[in-house]
């Protein structure tokens, strides 16, 4: 069996999608089988695959995302492919694929639910790009042989929003990188080494609801800080007036993107990890925090209930006072309890298991296609 995977999003810089793509491929290559792989990569991540050159065939594609050039070049990649099946780990699927069977991973439909909140484009350009996005997603759902999703919540969304047939949707829970395997940072200069802070990881799109976290911090002890890790973009910049009006500028630390070793340090030294998100497809960051014995407080949304169970504290997502109370409830005993529950919960998720289940989907589709 020969599988082609679009690996252009490989790596943590692409947040959850990058982690998914990287860990899927890493663990697929560790499975004891004779499956051959072709990986579509770009110049930015080419060096990441040096260790795998004896196991994979690489195809270069540097087309910008969400462009006609990307559509045409991906179509060309598929046309030249001798694979039995293509896997797109994202909704970006070429419209013209010459009939080659493929599976697609759809991580969420947040852009459908919060479309205008996730863009800074002018209305005309936004509508044209959204039309293309919507068309691409619907095409992927209609023409794919299988749809892989990270949670039952997303599966139900696809059925409700797009009438996707249940028979072609497969839930493969994701995992959490074992940051304990990383070396601790030796030269990381962190000004809060001796102070208490809560950790927020990810982008600052409006649906992430970071303002609720900031409002809660303003209600807490002056010595409690918040550290935000993620790409520094216009959405982070838009938080600055709120930070200033709350009088907490000296307590908010915007670190931008950090490597995994630094992130492991931040998780392991935080009072807790907090997410006030209004919508998620899975929940990699809460699981990463659990891996590093960091207590977790998250918004009470269906996905977190499904993934985190009773291993976290919940609060109504737009109630900053409830979040304040949850943070205040983190006594020493409560922290220990959450840490122990977190260890049990995170042990239930495995990238290797996800890769094995994904490979079984490949086998099923290829067998049907012959």
UniProtKB/TrEMBL annotation:
CDD domains: GT4_MtfB-like. Keywords: Transferase. One of its GO terms (biological process) is lipopolysaccharide biosynthetic process. GO terms for molecular function: glycosyltransferase activity. Residues 194-341 form the Glycosyl transferase family domain. Residues 16-177 form the Glycosyltransferase subfamily 4-like N-terminal domain. It comes from the Bacteria. InterPro entries: Glyco_trans_1, Glyco_trans_4-like_N. The keyword Transferase applies. Gene3D superfamilies: Glycogen Phosphorylase B (3.40.50.2000). This is Glycosyl transferase family 1 domain-containing protein.
């Amino acid at each position: 069996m020969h599988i082609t995977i679009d690996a252009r999003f490989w790596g943590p810089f692409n947040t959850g999608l990058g982690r998914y793509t990287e860990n899927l491929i890493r663990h697929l290559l560790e499975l004891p089988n004779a499956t051959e792989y072709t990986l579509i990569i770009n110049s930015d991540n080419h060096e990441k695959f040096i260790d795998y050159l004896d196991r994979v065939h690489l195809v270069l594609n540097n087309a910008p995302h969400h462009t006609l050039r990307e559509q045409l070049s991906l179509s060309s990649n598929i046309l030249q492919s001798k694979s039995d099946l293509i896997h797109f780990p994202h909704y970006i699927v070429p419209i013209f694929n010459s009939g080659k069977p493929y599976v697609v991973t759809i991580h969420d439909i947040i852009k459908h639910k919060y479309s205008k909140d996730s863009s800074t484009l002018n209305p005309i350009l936004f509508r044209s790009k959204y039309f293309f996005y919507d068309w691409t997603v619907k095409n992927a759902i209609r023409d794919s042989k299988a749809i892989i999703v990270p949670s039952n919540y997303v599966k139900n969304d696809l059925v409700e929003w797009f009438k996707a047939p249940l028979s072609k949707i497969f839930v493969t829970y994701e995992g959490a990188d074992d940051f304990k395997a990383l070396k601790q940072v030796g030269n990381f200069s962190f000004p809060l080494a001796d102070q208490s802070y809560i950790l927020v990881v990810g982008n600052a799109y409006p649906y992430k609801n970071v303002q609720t976290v900031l409002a809660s911090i303003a209600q807490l002890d002056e010595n409690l800080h918040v550290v935000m890790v993620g790409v520094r973009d216009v959405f982070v910049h838009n938080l600055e007036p709120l930070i200033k009006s709350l009088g907490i500028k000296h307590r908010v630390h915007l670190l931008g993107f950090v490597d995994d070793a630094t992130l492991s340090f931040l998780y392991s030294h935080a009072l807790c990890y907090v997410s006030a998100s209004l919508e998620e497809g899975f929940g990699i960051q809460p699981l990463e925090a659990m891996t590093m014995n960091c207590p977790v407080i998250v918004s009470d949304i269906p996905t977190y209930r499904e993934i985190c169970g009773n291993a976290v504290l919940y609060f109504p997502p737009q109630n900053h006072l409830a979040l304040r109370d949850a943070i205040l409830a983190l006594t020493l005993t409560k922290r220990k309890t959450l840490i122990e529950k977190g260890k049990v919960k995170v042990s239930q998720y495995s990238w290797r298991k996800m890769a094995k289940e994904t490979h079984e989907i490949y086998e099923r589709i290829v067998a049907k296609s012959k």
